[in-house]
Design brief:
single chain, about 350 residues, alpha/beta, Serine Threonine Protein Phosphatase 5, Tetratricopeptide repeat, Rossmann fold, 2 domains, five-stranded mixed beta sheet, three-stranded antiparallel beta sheet
């Protein structure tokens, strides 16, 4: 059974109405292709972490690094746990490509080198048999760096019935960088993907003193966790087609056409069937501007229903027959989506519902 390539999110449908505009924005979710293709016979996967220290020497260096960087000992371990958890959750939440087992394997094997040699194929196959999966997504390298910068700035204090006064504050910026190394192992126990990924986030706080400014920043462990969650999600999207947000504009009115007005009311109630009926009526208007906008809206309605060929036909009509400039750009977006959908179909091949 085919998985849906487009997910309408009517419960989260956003209608951003602007009084001075004649458009509104609607939202949907569409499957975007993965960066790499996975084997077709790999349907069930488990996640694993391989960055646990395997010697007292490595444990010592981890604690020492935490002391000197200010991150605190063991915060990297919390980051690795968040990172691998994020991969599994993102695959479950955002992609129908894999069935993810709840197992989260902890494998020994970290050294001071960033990437270890790949796991032995026979060992991977043994782990897969034990977990009843055909593949493993393994976090094999993890490192974090924190950078603190401070500067002095002047602020103007305004108080009622008092003259303005200027005060000096200390502004502290904290940048947290996380670098990870992932490998995905396939049914034969061999590496089917390997990627080094990096992401960072920044936080800023200010106070009367440096210590006061620091107190306003989140704990380093929480910062590492937030960046790790992002990196995990990014790797999940690398190996599996994943839903992404898509926004489309709709015309809400055109030269006081009553059908366009009625259709807008149906959209506000998320009644797309009735809205499309109103736009079909508006498309018969002899005024080219009204008809063009109606056909444009019909294209959006077809896309919302998962019918890209139908959406492209309506967008072509709005663009070529009624010379609607916005429809030309929309047509290009639809054609790009159609090409992406073909890639997704190949990447999803054989996925069971």
């Amino acid at each position: 059974m085919k998985r849906p390539l487009l997910r309408s999110i009517s419960s989260c449908l956003g209608l951003l109405l602007v009084a001075s505009s004649c458009t509104t924005t609607v939202h949907m979710q569409a499957l975007a292709p993965a960066a790499v293709h996975m084997p077709r016979d790999m349907q069930r996967i488990a996640t694993a972490s391989r960055v646990l220290p395997d010697s007292r020497r490595d444990k010592f260096f981890d604690v020492l690094e935490g002391v000197f960087t200010g991150e605190g000992p063991m915060v990297d371990r919390a980051g690795t746990e968040a990172c691998i958890m994020s991969v599994g959750e993102s695959l479950v939440r955002n992609s129908p490509r894999f069935r993810v087992t709840p197992a989260n394997l902890q494998l020994q094997g970290r050294t001071r080198e960033f990437f270890l040699p790949p796991l032995a194929p026979a060992y991977v196959q043994q782990l897969c048999r034990t977990s009843q999966v055909e593949g493993l997504v393994v976090l094999e390298a993890f490192d974090s760096d924190m950078l603190l910068e401070q500067k002095k700035e002047e602020r103007t204090i305004k108080e009622k019935d008092k003259p303005d006064r200027k005060v000096q504050v200390t502004v502290v910026n904290m940048a947290m960088r996380v670098v990870t190394g992932f490998r995905t192992y396939g049914p034969q126990g061999t590496v089917v993907d390997q990627a080094k990924q990096e992401d960072r986030l920044n936080w800023t706080s200010e106070g009367a003193t440096y210590q006061a400014a620091l107190a306003g920043l989140p704990a380093p462990g929480e910062c590492i966790r937030q960046v790790s969650l992002r990196v995990g999600d990014q790797y999940a999207r690398r190996i599996a087609p994943s839903y992404v947000a898509v926004s489309r504009d709709l015309y809400t009115r055109a030269r006081k056409d009553d059908f366009m007005r009625q259709a807008q009311q149906r959209v506000a109630a998320t009644d797309w069937t009735q809205a499309a009926t109103m736009w079909q009526q508006a498309a018969r208007n002899p005024d080219a501007r009204v008809a063009g906008r109606a056909f444009y809206n019909l294209a959006v309605a077809q896309e919302m229903n998962g019918d890209l060929p139908g959406a492209i036909d309506y967008a072509r009509k709005a663009a070529y027959d009624y010379h609607l400039r916005a429809a030309v750009a929309y047509l290009r977006e639809l054609q790009a989506r159609q090409q992406a959908e073909q890639v997704v179909e190949q990447q999803m091949g054989g996925t069971a519902n």
